[in-house]
UniProtKB/TrEMBL annotation:
GO molecular function terms listed in the Swiss-Prot or TrEMBL record: beta-glucosidase activity
Pfam families per UniProt: Glyco_hydro_1 (PF00232)
Entry keyword set: Glycosidase, Hydrolase
Keyword Hydrolase assigned: yes
Protein family (similarity comment): Belongs to the glycosyl hydrolase 1 family.
One cellular component (GO) term of this entry: cytosol
BP-aspect Gene Ontology terms: carbohydrate catabolic process
Cited InterPro entries: GH, GH_1_N_CS, Glyco_hydro_1, Glyco_hydro_1_AS
Catalytic residues, chain numbering: E363
Name the UniProt record assigns to this protein: Putative 6-phospho-beta-glucosidase
């Protein structure tokens, strides 16, 4: 075996709009739930400035071209296109992404666009957000508009980033607790919105390809006790498979349905749902992967609640079903997320054998506190190490038969972490966000930039 990645492998790098763009009120943009989210308002962590990618996009794409990436995953801010969520299109918003796409194409980089990444327009949130079926109608209008505007230039599309995490696991992302009765209905509305995205992409974009974007963390049982295995089955079904089974098979799995039944929750379907969900399917799966999780069957109701607090942490608690525990066999990063490259291979194999669809990794990476040295260097061997270990496993998965056609890690440039602001960085490109730099936000290439560049150019892990 050559231990090289396939010749046409899509190497990429990823970002999202609200974590990088800034310019939160510029050129007619409406506010989003991320702009209004209550959080530490310190300038350095501020999403309203972020990495000011809105004004630096040319420079950033030029750097990505130097990195040699073949694909750039970014999201469109819905509120730039429709400041009121629907109806009146903001031409400046359309033009902005047209320019970003053209800049990518000039450098021979394929754009891969996420329709929505955690930033619902605030006006829609004000009418109940995803609880209100009208938000699905607004999304349909938005998706059609975007496909019509850019479909002649963009082949790869992603639907809505991580509905499984945003609604079922980690409410910190939205900065608020959604009442339990509403959360599963919201989830269903998101699932239906995605089905319409599949439908419109296939109708409006010639040769267009579209995929769901789950965050998958495979769940292990803490011991070989049958009840711990059952806990893992339930958490796997709720966290990982509820979303993808609906996308790829057009139904919720029985374990998820039983989970809802035991919680006395029912989901309301609209008359057209049955047809739309069974007729529209993805072309590939875009998977975000950071870690794996370990659970046991909870036996003590003390301190147990329905809510789950942090996406990857151990403090998952769901009485009657599962409880997160430390996995003694895995190391952790500075922010307490476990590191599990072997689990990455297992996840890829599990995913491929379950859905039989091509897979591209659209997020994987290490969040860390990076230091800019006096001579403007960033030495990040820990990031290189993380990426290397995961890519070795990705290569093994490919050699074992998994149809993995690309890898687009998180993140292209430094951005504002959802949970930790700018103190947690992921990028290959450092963004100087010290107070005195807030106007310039200068970019510097990290050691990992040169490492990844070499990897892409040789198709081989250095
Ligand atoms: C994913 C999100 C990203 C990203 C990442 C890391 O779930 O899609 O937007 O931020 O998690 O999370 P964090 O920023 O909290 O480190």
């Amino acid at each position: 075996m050559s231990h090289k990645f396939p010749d046409n492998f899509l190497w990429g790098a990823s970002i999202s709009a609200h974590q990088t763009e800034g310019a939160y009120k510029s050129d007619g943009k409406g506010l989003t739930v991320q702009d209004t989210r209550i959080r530490d308002n310190h300038e350095i962590a501020n999403f309203t400035v972020a990495s000011d990618h809105y004004h630096h996009y040319k420079k950033d794409i030029q750097l990505l071209a130097e990195l040699s990436v073949k694909v750039f995953r970014f999201s469109i801010s819905w509120a730039r296109i429709f400041p009121q969520g629907r109806k009146e299109v903001n031409q400046a918003g359309i033009d902005h992404y047209q320019n970003v796409i053209d800049e990518c194409l000039t450098h021979n980089i394929k754009p891969m666009i996420t329709l929505n990444h955690f930033d619902l327009p605030q006006v829609l949130e004000d009418i109940g957000g995803w609880s209100n079926r009208k938000t699905v109608d607004a999304f349909k209008e938005y998706a059609q508009t975007v496909f019509k505007a850019y479909g002649n230039k963009v082949k790869y599309w992603l639907t809505i980033n991580e509905p499984n995490i945003m609604l079922l696991v980690d409410q910190k992302i939205l900065g608020k607790q959604i009442p339990i009765k509403e959360k599963y209905q919201q989830f269903h509305h998101l699932m239906m919105a995605e089905k319409y995205a599949f439908k419109f992409c296939h109708e409006l974009v010639e040769n267009g390809q579209i995929g769901p974007v789950p965050n998958i963390s495979l769940v292990y049982p803490a011991t070989s006790k049958p009840l711990d295995n059952q806990a893992a089955l339930y958490f796997n079904s709720v966290r990982n498979w509820a979303y993808l089974d609906f996308s790829c098979f057009g139904r919720y799995n029985t374990v998820f349905k039983d989970y809802l039944k035991q919680k006395n929750i029912s989901i309301t379907f609209s008359p057209e749902d049955e047809t739309v969900m069974k007729e529209n399917f993805p072309d590939f799966i875009a998977m975000n992967f950071y870690t794996t999780m370990t659970v046991e069957k909870p036996m003590d109701k003390n301190n147990m609640s329905e809510g789950i607090s942090d996406q990857q942490s151990e403090d998952i608690m769901d009485w009657g079903f599962y409880k997160g525990v430390t996995n003694p066999y895995l190391k952790k990063n500075q922010f307490n997320w476990t590191i599990d490259p072997d689990g990455f291979k297992t996840t890829l194999q599990t995913l491929y054998d379950r859905y039989h669809l091509p897979i591209i990794i659209t997020e994987n990476g290490l969040g860390a506190k990076d230091d800019l040295t006096e001579d403007k260097k960033i030495h990040d061997p820990y990031r290189i190490d993380y990426l290397k270990q995961h890519l070795e496993q990705a290569l093994e998965a490919i050699e074992a038969g998994v149809d993995l056609f690309g890898y687009s890690p998180w993140s292209a440039i430094d951005l504002i972490s959802v949970h930790e602001g700018i103190s947690k960085r992921y990028g290959f490109i450092y963004v100087d966000r010290t107070e005195k730099e807030l106007k310039q936000l200068r970019r510097y290439k990290k050691d990992s930039f040169y490492w990844y560049q070499k990897l892409i150019q040789t198709n081989k892990i250095p």
